Amino acid sequence: MSRDPCPCGGDRYAACCGPFHAGTPAPDAARLMRSRYSAYALKLGDYLLATWHPAHRPAQLDLADPPGQRTTWLGLAVKAHRDTGPDTAEVEFVARYRIGGGKAVRMHERSRFVREDGRWFYLDGATP
Fold first, then answer.
1. pTM tops 0.90
2. Spatial distance between the Cα atoms of 10 and 38, rounded to a whole number of angstroms
3. Are 49 and 43 in contact (CB under 8 A)?
4. How much is the mean pLDDT over the chain?
5. Are the CB atoms for 87 and 115 separated by under 8 Å?
6. How does 99-127 read in b/e, with b if 16+ C-beta sit within 10 Å?
């Protein structure tokens, strides 16, 4: 997978989201958001839970595809990234995916992030 393109649309996976999935802290909220998109595409549930702030994290995360259907992640567009404080940020993005042979779904979200002890965490998101 080291030479494969990164699901988030970046360069090679090994130079893009791979290091974050292996444990290197993301340097900013936008990179964490991109790595979380890639984790959804690669079904890395443990990474998603680990990067979700404990106060907002679900008890479990089911990334299984619906019976007989496969979820295909089609692309990510980061629309905006802004620091809202020294350790807080927002990232607005559009992620596209398709389940089975259905129509593409467009997920538009403005996500909030917080940095604690040098690590960024996803807090929550809202539809703009």
1. yes
2. 10
3. no
4. 95
5. yes
6. eeeeeeeeeebebbbbbeeeebbbbebee
